[in-house]
Amino acid sequence: MIDSLIPVRMLNELVYCPRLFYYEYVEKEFTENQDTLDGHFVHRRVDQEERERQHVGETEVWTYKSLYLSAPRLHLIAKIDIVEEAGGEAVPVEYKRGEAPKIPGDAWDSDKVQVCAQGLVLRENGYRCTHGEIYYATSRRRVMVKITDELVKKTLAVIDEALALAHSNTLPPPLVDSPKCPRCSLVGICLPDETNLLVLHSSANDDVEVRRMFPAKSDALPVYVQEQGTNVGRSGDNLILSSPSGKKERLRLIDVSQLCLFGNVHLTPSALRLLVENGIPICYFTYGGWFYAITLGHPHKNVELRVAQYKSADDSAKALRLASKFVEGKIQNMRTMLRRNHPNAVVYALRRLSGIARLSEIATNMESLLGYEGTATEIYFSNFQGMLKGLIRDVFHFSERNRRPPLDRVNALLSFVYALLVKDCFSSIISVGLDPYLGFLHRPRYGRPALALDLMEEFRPIIGDSVVISLINNRELDGNDFAQHGKAIALNQKGRRKVIEAYHRRLDTLVTHHLFGYKLSYARVLEVQARLLCRALIGEIPEYIPFVTR
Fold this sequence. Notes:
By secondary structure, the chain is α/β, with parallel strands linked by helices. The protein folds into 4 domains: 6-166, Lambda Exonuclease, Chain A; 173-214, no CATH class; 221-295, CATH 3.100.10.20; 303-538, CRISPR-associated endonuclease Cas1, C-terminal domain (Four Helix Bundle (Hemerythrin (Met), subunit A)), CATH 1.20.120.920. Helices cover 42% and strands 19% of the residues. A hairpin with a 5-residue loop joins strand 10 and strand 11. The radius of gyration is 28 Å and the shape is elongated.
């Protein structure tokens, strides 16, 4: 439900970019970047509510900082940085971190509208207001903005546009090749160039440049706590890990993307609150490595996206089309893994996988699609042993895929890595606002994160299987990294640590996105693909395109 009063600062965003307004106001999306953090720093002096009085000659001047006012007739609410009031005349002063336009005495259009709206709010509250001022911190200059009839007319039109857009439930199209995009904090959510490419071309085109306008890697990393009896506490904005042996480790919150707890690890209430308030998921695993729960703050507020997801899942044709894309991506990536890693090239298997991938794309019902997926997986795993180096096959022998429980070391590795991967797909799905439990390929079942498993399919071979093959062929593991319980085989704590390190090396690896042509880490690819799935569900792009490597 949209608020009845629109914050005046949102009018600035609307003039700057309607899509940005929709994300921030309607979908409540916001992320920080260097510009927004600089903006907080610039505002630090005016963010505390204060009131002071001084005399300029015989005139009494009141200065109000961080003043909240509402104007119900205009459908506006404003937090004004500074209001200078004397004799019933009020002047709003807005602080901006950037530079003023090069033309002396001029201001940016979006800032003019914002200050004019502040003036109109002051007028509705009984003040006279004929002008406002904008302080541009980088230029160290105040610019006066006269509230003319022409500017008022323009501002009222922007208010009407904001109200209409807020209730339209239609995401505006992205800007085209705009210089505004690289500086926007939401560019990694908006994906303007990527969306335009898929809308106009539906595939990569040498004549179209797609700018990568967000970091290829994230500086924050998951933290895994395996030692039983460890206590995770809080000190300020830091996490404190205290092991039973007395060892303590301090972690800065800004360096943590997830907290993953294995078995009997205690998390204090204050640390829990710190993590959820900052949007950092807490992932819970059994001691043996089975991912079973996740703790987050309030779920994503984009209800319209989830409605689109539910409608698509209820539409058998749409659900089949999406499911076929997940299967097609998985089969193509399985073929790539065999082609890259099998010394004998397995020509027959490669040809069959190519044919099955084409059949899966045109499957006419879910039963046929699942049959294609099962056949392709059987072909792939029947050749999996050939991707392992001959000298270590006695230690890591693989004949077939088995699980619950794994009966050999290779299957134990695959199961554990897949648990890590589904955790990251689950986190990506939640972060973009989708319901992780309602899938298209994997049908709903109580407690099963079906959509996370859907997204995971195309990444099983190129992330999960790649980690397992690299660990074995590079001799990073041996028999001492496993434990046997009856017929079941599982990694021990030392082995899990090695696998986790290798898994995150893989997630940190840069890869060229086959659609957009720029490089980013596999961890970022998971997020990008989740956002492309959102675009397909709301109909902004023609269809979901899985990530494949060559």
